[in-house]
Write a structure and sequence with these properties.
By secondary structure, the chain is mainly α. It has helices spanning about 5-55, 65-70, 75-85; strands at about 90-95, 100-105, 115-120.
Length: about 140
C-alpha cells in the first residue's frame, strides 16, 4: 500500500475519533447543565415549602428540617436534596417578613452556585390596568 492510500484509509478513522470526542464532551456539558437545572428545581421546591410554611404559621423559616417536616417523607426529601445539592460547598436560607432567599451549590464538578428567591412576584400583565388620569 502506498502512503496516499494509508492516509486515505486513516481519514475516516480520524473523523470518527474526533466525532467521538465531540459527542463525549457534549454529553458532559449536557450532564452538567442537567445537574444545575436539577439543583435549581430543588431550590424551587424548597421555595414552595416556604410558601406553605408562611400560610400555615404566618412566617418564613430558616430551618430546613422544619420545611422537611411539611413533606410526607422527611428522610426521602432530605436524601433527594443531598443528591442534588453540595451542602459542603455551602447552603444558606435567609428570610425576612416579606420573602426568602435560598443559596446553594449544585452537585456538579464546578459546584455551580444556584439561587432562588421568593415569593414569586406577580408579572406585570397580571396587574390591574390603571384607569388613567382624570378617572
Amino acid at each position: 500500500m502506498t502512503v496516499h492510500r494509508l492516509r486515505a484509509a486513516a481519514r475516516p478513522l480520524a473523523a470518527a475519533a474526533i466525532l467521538a470526542v465531540f459527542v463525549i464532551s457534549l454529553g458532559r456539558v449536557y450532564t452538567r447543565h442537567r445537574q444545575v437545572a436539577d439543583a435549581l428545581e430543588s431550590l424551587r421546591g424548597i421555595g414552595a415549602l416556604q410558601d406553605v410554611h408562611k400560610r400555615l404559621y404566618g412566617e418564613y423559616t430558616e430551618d430546613l428540617s422544619r420545611l422537611a417536616d411539611l413533606t410526607d417523607d422527611w428522610r426521602g426529601f432530605m436524601a433527594s436534596l443531598d443528591a442534588l445539592l453540595d451542602f459542603r460547598a455551602g447552603f444558606e436560607m435567609r428570610v425576612t417578613k416579606d420573602g426568602y432567599r435560598i443559596e446553594a451549590h449544585a452537585r456538579d464538578r464546578r459546584r455551580t452556585p444556584v439561587v432562588w428567591e421568593g415569593p414569586a412576584k406577580r408579572p406585570l400583565a397580571a396587574l390591574p390596568a390603571s384607569k388613567g388620569p382624570g378617572s
